[in-house]
Design goal:
By secondary structure, the protein is of the alpha/beta class. 38% of the residues lie in helices and 15% in strands. It has one domain: Alpha-Beta Barrel (TIM Barrel), CATH 3.20.20. The relative contact order is 0.13. The structure holds ligand 9MR.
């Protein structure tokens, strides 16, 4: 702990002495990324491009590399939007993170079932996973920095999620997916990615999973802590413990989908279970006319606390990615209650940087 602290002081004082942009604050070894939507990566949003070029060096497509958009019908691939992402990134000096190869959500409806709607056999599902991964990863071989190979396979209580993937193949689908991705692009980094990673049982389960994959000789470079956070959750000691525990398994840690919701949470803590939704009530949407200064101050402190943690763990971290650029674009305006006005990101709806951007940069000068 003391060693980490001293290292972080040293790093903040040397490698980042001239930081002017977010991408510099933690030094060159930690990528600074942002998730962009299809319109943004089509290159038509000049204001986004200007900000991204100034502050970021890494890009995650928010949706277009998921299996549903990429393979809408069996054997029918649509690469247009994903090709645009890669071209946009290359034109703007950004690494690309492929998100995501195997996820029970945003998968095409045909993927897990046969023509009559019944679950397919283990053999058929294995072939479908293999074919999807070899086709997608193979197409972008050498042009994608790393892939979220498996997304959200573990429940908050540490058990395996009873998704169609698990129900048909058991936990073997995870190893199968990682091996297929490695075969298709031996140089790409490979990640496991999940939310609510500060929960102790989930943390332990993910660490067990990583150790098991490594024991079996499977390549896994990092674990993504999505980090959909709020002003009060999670407890940052637990969050930091997860970073330590993951690093102790021998992988890098990535913050892959960072945002901080300022809105009241209907279920008491913040996660990202996309199948959940709650009824709209005015009381749950208090800041439609703007964010009060007191809440803005708590928001800034939260981000500064997080960046202090990231600085302490600089040697374990390989990337920080924000899940969107401006508040307008955030998925949190529609989750877990539709039609709210949230303020979770670092740029305002009018593309002005929030003061916290300058404060983060300043704190690393
Ligand atoms: O931000 C994404 C949103 O636009 C999509 O509608 C949603 C669909 O499932 O996925 C969102 O991104 C998710 C990411 O792919 C995986 N982790 C949770 C993210 C927020 O739901």
């Amino acid at each position: 702990m003391i060693r980490n602290f001293l290292l972080s002081l040293l790093c903040a004082a040397t490698a980042t002495a001239s930081a002017q942009h977010l991408r510099d604050v933690l030094g060159g070894d930690v990528l600074m990324g942002v998730a962009l939507n299809q319109w943004q990566t089509s290159g038509q949003d000049a204001r986004t491009t200007a900000i991204v070029r100034e502050h970021f060096n890494c890009l995650t497509p928010e949706n277009v590399m998921k299996s549903g958009p990429l393979q809408p019908a069996e054997g029918v691939f649509d690469f247009q939007a994903a090709d645009d992402v890669v071209a946009y990134a290359e034109a703007n000096g950004l690494q690309v993170i492929g998100h995501c190869l195997v996820w029970h959500s945003q998968a095409p409806s045909w993927f897990f079932t046969d023509g009559t709607g019944k679950p397919v056999s283990a053999e058929v599902l294995r072939e479908r996973i293999q074919k999807h991964i070899s086709t997608v990863v193979g197409r972008y071989r050498g042009r994608i920095h790393g892939w979220d190979v498996v997304n959200e396979a573990i429940e908050d209580d540490g058990s395996f999620r009873r998704s169609p993937l698990y129900n048909i193949l058991g936990e073997d689908f995870i190893e199968l997916a990682f091996r297929a991705a490695h075969e298709a692009d031996p140089d790409a980094e490979l990640y496991y990615n999940d939310y609510s990673m500060a929960l102790p049982r989930k943390r332990e389960a993910v660490c067990r999973l990583v150790r098991r994959l490594k024991e079996r000789g499977v390549r896994i470079d990092a674990v993504g802590m999505q980090s959909h956070l709020s002003l009060t959750h999670p407890d940052l000691h637990e969050y930091e413990t997860t970073m330590d525990s993951l690093a102790a398994t021998g992988v890098k840690v990535m913050v892959t989908e960072l945002d901080v919701s300022v809105l009241p949470s209907p279920w008491g803590f913040n996660g990202a279970e996309v199948s959940q939704s709650f009824e709209y009530k005015k009381a749950m949407n208090p800041y439609t006319e703007g964010l009060p200064d007191s809440v803005q101050a708590r928001f800034e402190e939260r981000y500064l606390d997080l960046f202090r943690i990231y600085a302490r763990h600089r040697q374990d971290l390989s990337r920080i990615t924000f899940w969107g650029l401006t508040d307008e674009q955030s998925w949190l305006n529609g989750f877990p209650i539709k039609g709210r006005t949230d303020y979770p990101l670092l740029w305002n709806r009018d593309y002005r940087a929030k003061p916290v951007v300058g404060r983060i940069i300043e704190s690393f000068r």
